[in-house]
Amino acid sequence: MKIILSGGGTGGHIYPALALAEVIKKHEPDTQFLYVGSERGVESNIVPATGMAFDRLTVQGFKRSLSLDNVKTVSLFLKAVREAKKILKEFQPDVVVGTGGYVSGAVVYAAQRLHIPTVIHEQNSIAGVTNKFLSRGATRIGVAFDVALSQFPKGKATVVGNPRAQQVASLKSNFSWRQIGLRDDKQTLLIFGGSQGAPAINLAVIDALETFNQRSYQVVFVTGPKRYQNVLDRMTTQPAENVRILPYIDNMPEVMAQTDAIVARAGATSIAEITALGIPSILIPSPFVTGDHQTKNAQSLVDAGAALMISEPSLSAITLTQAADTLLLNDKVSEAMAAQSTKIGVRDAGERLYALILDAIGE
Ligand SMILES: CC(=O)N[C@H]1[C@@H](OP(=O)(O)OP(=O)(O)OC[C@H]2O[C@@H](n3ccc(=O)[nH]c3=O)[C@H](O)[C@@H]2O)O[C@H](CO)[C@@H](O)[C@@H]1O
C-alpha cells in the first residue's frame, strides 16, 4: 500500500500523522509512506528525523483581516496545489491522509481533484479552517471529539480519537529521570506550553521557581525551543536540584509515561496523550486559537473531574503552585483525577482511523 500523509505548522497536527503511520506499519509492514509538509513548518525537521520520506511545498496561512498578503497566499496555495499534483502523479498513493494545517489543504485538495481517496483527521472540538474546506471532497473524516461530528457534512464523520493517544498508551517506556539529572524515587510534575511553548506559562513558572525549588516533588519545565534563551535571561532565581529547564522534549511519549502530573496548554493532541496515560493535569487554554477551542477541550476534562483549569488571566505563580500542590501533595485528589482521566482516554484511536482509511480505499 502507498500512503501520502500531510499535516503541518505545529506539533499537534504532525504527531498524530506519525502515530497513525506506526499503526499502519504494524498491520502492513510493506506500506510505503511519503509525508508532504511545508518547507517552513516544524514538520520539515520532525518528520525526516523519524526516517520517513519527506517532500516540501511552499505555503502560507491566511491573515484573518483583509490584507494584500492574502492575495499572495492564494497564489501560493494554487502553486502548492500544482506542485502537490505532480508529487501525487509520481508517487501514485492509494490514499491521502490530512491531519490539518495549511499544507494539508493543498495536498488533500490536489488529491481530491485527481479523484484519489482522501481521509482527513480533526483533532479539535472545533474544526479547523483547512479541514472544513476539505470536508466536502473527503472520502472519510475521523474526529477526536463527539462535538466535532456536527461540524462536518452529515454522515461523513466518525469518532476515532487521536492516534497519538494509542501510540503513547502502547509504548513501553525505558525512560529514567536520571537521564536528565533527576531522581526516579520522587513525584514529577511536567510543565509545557504545547509544541511551541507559551509565554504566559513561562512567565508564571519563572515567578514560581522559588516555590518549586522548595518542594518535595520534582519539576521539569519545557520552555519551547524558541523561548528557551528568553526564559534563562529573565530568571532571577536559579533552579534547585529538583528542577530542570529544557527547550524541548523529543521523546515526549517516553517521558510522559513516567510523569505524575502535567501542566499544559489544552491543545487537542496534548490532551489525547494526557488522557491516554490517565495523568492528572492542570490545563491553561491558549486564548489565541480559533473559536476558543482550547477552553472547550479543557472544559471536557474538567467536567469529567479529570483536570483542573486555570484561565490565562488568572494564571500567576500563586494559582499555579497551589494547583500543582493539590495534584502532587494530595494523593486522594490525584488518584481520583487519574481514574477520570483514564476513563476519557481513547487508546485504540490509531486502529479506528486505520479502519476508516481501509474503508476509503475500498470505496
Ligand atoms: C496555538 C495553537 O494553534 N495550538 C494548536 C496546536 O497546538 P500544539 O501544536 O501545541 O498541539 P498540541 O498541544 O495538540 O500537541 C503538542 C504536541 O507536541 C508534543 N510536544 C510538546 C512539547 C515538547 O517539548 N515535545 C513534544 O513532543 C506534545 O507531546 C504533543 O504531541 O495544534 C492543536 C491540534 O492538535 C490545537 O488543539 C492547538 O490549539
Automatic annotation (TrEMBL):
Specify the Glycosyltransferase family 28 N-terminal domain's residue ranges.
Answer: 3-142
What is this enzyme's EC?
Answer: 2.4.1.227
| Record has Transcription as a keyword | no
Name the Gene Ontology molecular function terms of this record.
undecaprenyldiphospho-muramoylpentapeptide beta-N-acetylglucosaminyltransferase activity
Which pathway does UniProt place it in? Cell wall biogenesis; peptidoglycan biosynthesis
Q: Where does UDP-N-acetyl-alpha-D-glucosamine bind?
A: T10, G11, G12, N124, S195, I249, Q294
Has keyword Transmembrane? no
Span of domain Glycosyl transferase family 28 C-terminal: 188-352
Q: Which CDD domains match?
A: GT28_MurG
Which GO cellular component term is one of those annotated? plasma membrane
| Matches recorded under InterPro entries | GlcNAc_MurG (IPR006009), Glyco_trans_28_C (IPR007235), GlycoTrans_28_N (IPR004276)
Q: How does it sit in the membrane?
A: Peripheral membrane protein
Say which domain of life the source belongs to: Bacteria
Annotated GO biological processes are: carbohydrate metabolic process; cell division; cell wall organization; peptidoglycan biosynthetic process; regulation of cell shape
Swiss-Prot/TrEMBL catalytic activity = Mur2Ac(oyl-L-Ala-gamma-D-Glu-L-Lys-D-Ala-D-Ala)-di-trans,octa-cis-undecaprenyl diphosphate + UDP-N-acetyl-alpha-D-glucosamine = beta-D-GlcNAc-(1->4)-Mur2Ac(oyl-L-Ala-gamma-D-Glu-L-Lys-D-Ala-D-Ala)-di-trans,octa-cis-undecaprenyl diphosphate + UDP + H(+)
Query: Which of UniProt's keywords are assigned here?
Result: Cell cycle, Cell division, Cell membrane, Cell shape, Cell wall biogenesis/degradation, Glycosyltransferase, Membrane, Peptidoglycan synthesis, Transferase
Subcellular localization: Cell membrane
Family per similarity comment = Belongs to the glycosyltransferase 28 family. MurG subfamily.
- Which NCBIfam families does the protein's record reference? murG (TIGR01133)
The job of this chain, per UniProt, is described as: Cell wall formation. Catalyzes the transfer of a GlcNAc subunit on undecaprenyl-pyrophosphoryl-MurNAc-pentapeptide (lipid intermediate I) to form undecaprenyl-pyrophosphoryl-MurNAc-(pentapeptide)GlcNAc (lipid intermediate II).
What's the protein name?
A: UDP-N-acetylglucosamine--N-acetylmuramyl-(pentapeptide) pyrophosphoryl-undecaprenol N-acetylglucosamine transferase
